[in-house]
Design brief:
Distance between the termini of chain B: 61 Å
Strand content of chain A: 15-25%
Distance between the termini of chain A: 54 Å
Helix content of chain A: 25-40%
CATH class of the largest domain in chain A: Alpha Beta
CATH topology of one domain in chain B: Enolase-like, domain 1
CATH architecture of the largest domain in chain A: Roll
Number of helices of chain B: 12
Order of helices and strands of chain B: EHEHEEEHHHHHHEEEEEHEEEEHHH
Largest sheet of chain B: 5 strands, antiparallel
Largest sheet of chain A: 5 strands, mixed
Oligomer: heterodimer
Strand content of chain B: 15-25%
CATH architecture of one domain in chain B: 2-Layer Sandwich
Number of domains of chain A: 2
Order of helices and strands of chain A: EEHEEEHHHH
Bound molecules: FE2/S2 (inorganic) cluster
Strand order of the largest sheet of chain B: 4-5-10-6-7
Number of strands of chain B: 14
Radius of gyration of chain A: 16 Å
Shape of chain B: globular
Structural class of chain A: alpha+beta
CATH topology of the largest domain in chain A: Ubiquitin-like (UB roll)
CATH superfamily of one domain in chain B: CO dehydrogenase flavoprotein, C-terminal domain
Helix content of chain B: 25-40%
Structural class of chain B: alpha+beta
Strand order of the largest sheet of chain A: 2-1-5-3-4
CATH superfamily of the largest domain in chain A: Beta-grasp domain
Chain lengths: 163, 295
């Protein structure tokens, strides 16, 4: 099958991967980049477990072709912690709020929440729910996930104000 | 890994049209949120595709010199909903596409894909139909313009002939000027769900806001294809803005629809939804236009 070189920025580093043109972005990032935070939940765009940011927006990487990634800037959960591996505030908030049970959905939820925790204004719980409505969790019942996102957003807005 | 036959890559629209002429069996791959799923399910396993997702010339929205709004087909639902031109002139279209799937699906799904798919439940279809959208369809031999009202031929079947690609969706000035719309989607869940029924209404009122000068109403999932209710429209045009108007629109709509029973809902339930949603959407559109029922 045809192969193609794809150059994109993954978690801040420019990388080139030789992909089979039939691969999804999730295949490429798990298989070649070893970014295992990306989960193959449903593989058909229903569950959000494979969510990554592409040019700042959340996408399901299972239904995004690897060949579309040329020139794009991609961020996965691994890109959130600092160079020493310390957790980011949103990851810590998921732990503190008990928003993780089996953990399978967690990376996807965290990536889907990035646009909302980075927003300048506070969101209602309803807006937070809407932002994560493309993600499924079989364990937590969602309440603690919303709590973790709400708390992190509030914290970040407060930090910006105090600066 | 997706089970594709050949993936043809393109660098321009012309390139894509030429490839389509050479390989008529190949499907255009836009955002892929329908095709990729069908490949996974096996329904389209092994199919050939012409990848057009990277063709930025097919992306974006602009206001043309004649005042018409041109939406290019690869524009994502998110970009339609967020676009200042849509927010200013046809906010109802943004509201409608904002009810599709979830954020991730709205980032990848394209408005052109939504209507070329030809399903009756497409959330963008009803509003585009209710605004008399015009479709610009190209092949390597030229471009033709088709009213969207004539595009759907049957469930999942649209008037795209051999070698053709939808290249533009145009809403003319007279179609959106002084016009206010409202869309209601009835579904079982508030996200990641397909409409049980969709209703899009828009109205233009007289200067004094007491009379309807033009009402257009379209339904999704009320027939095998998205439809307009001409009976409802005929009885509303020129009618005073009052309760009786709502009843007339609702009765007219019931006369034109032909919903079926599916696992989502029975025909009877859908008829009830048509009756109620026609009234509610009309009332909301009138209020947005500055009119008041019983005012
Ligand atoms: S694995 Fe991609 S959405 Fe479920
Ligand atoms: S924690 Fe198990 S699926 Fe969400």
């Amino acid at each position: 099958m045809a192969k193609k070189d794809i150059t994109c920025t993954v978690n801040g580093k420019v990388r080139t991967y030789s992909v089979d043109v039939r691969e999804s972005l999730s295949d490429m990032l798990r298989g070649q980049a070893g970014l295992d935070s990306i989960k193959h939940g449903c593989d058909v765009g229903e569950c959000g477990a494979c969510t990554v940011l592409i040019d700042g927006k959340p996408f399901n990487s299972c239904i995004y072709m690897a060949i579309w990634a040329e020139g794009k800037e991609i961020i996965t959960l691994e890109g959130l912690s600092d160079t020493k591996g310390a957790l980011s505030d949103i990851q810590q908030a998921f732990i503190d709020e008990g928003a993780v049970q089996c953990g399978f959905c967690t990376p996807g939820f965290i990536m889907a929440s990035i646009p909302i925790i980075s927003s300048e204004t506070e969101s209602s719980r309803e807006e937070i729910r809407r932002q994560i409505s493309g993600n499924l969790c079989r364990c937590t019942g969602y309440e603690n996930i919303v709590n973790a996102i709400e708390k992190t957003q509030k914290k970040r807005i407060a930090e910006k104000k105090s600066k | 890994m997706y089970n594709f036959g050949t993936i043809y890559e393109t660098t321009s629209v012309e390139d894509a049209l030429r490839l389509k002429k050479e390989h008529p069996q190949a499907h255009f791959l836009a955002g892929g949120s329908d095709i990729l799923i069908k490949v996974r399910e096996g329904k389209l396993a092994g199919c050939d595709v012409i990848n057009i997702y990277n063709l930025d010339e097919l992306r974006g929205i602009c206001l043309e010199e004649d005042g018409s709004i041109l939406i290019r087909p690869l524009t994502s639902f998110t970009d339609v909903a967020m676009h200042p031109i849509i927010k200013q002139y046809i906010p109802v279209l943004g509201e409608a596409v904002n009810q599709i799937g979830g954020p991730q699906v709205r980032n990848i799904g394209t408005i052109g894909g939504n209507i070329c798919n030809g399903v009756t439940s497409a959330d963008s279809a009803t509003t585009l139909k209710a605004y008399d959208a015009m479709l610009e369809i190209s092949s390597i031999d030229g471009t033709r313009v088709l009213p969207y009202g004539e595009f759907n031929l049957g469930p999942g079947k649209v008037d795209l002939r051999e070698g053709e690609l939808l290249c533009g969706i145009r809403i003319r000035k007279e179609s959106y000027e002084k016009t206010y719309g409202h869309y209601i989607k009835y579904a079982m869940r508030r996200a990641m769900d397909i409409a049980t029924l969709g209703c899009s209404v828009n109205v233009t009122l007289s200067e004094d806001k007491k009379t309807v000068t033009r009402l257009r109403i379209a339904f999704g999932v009320a027939a095998p294809i998205p439809i307009r209710s001409t009976t409802a429209e005929a009885s509303a045009n020129g009618h005073a803005v009052n309760e009786a108007l709502l009843d007339l629109v609702s009765e007219g709509a019931l006369a034109d629809v032909n919903p079926r029973t599916s696992w989502r809902a029975s025909k009877e339930f859908r008829m009830q939804l048509v009756k109620e949603m026609a009234k509610r959407a009309t009332k909301a559109a009138i209020e947005k236009a500055g009119g008041t029922i019983n005012g």
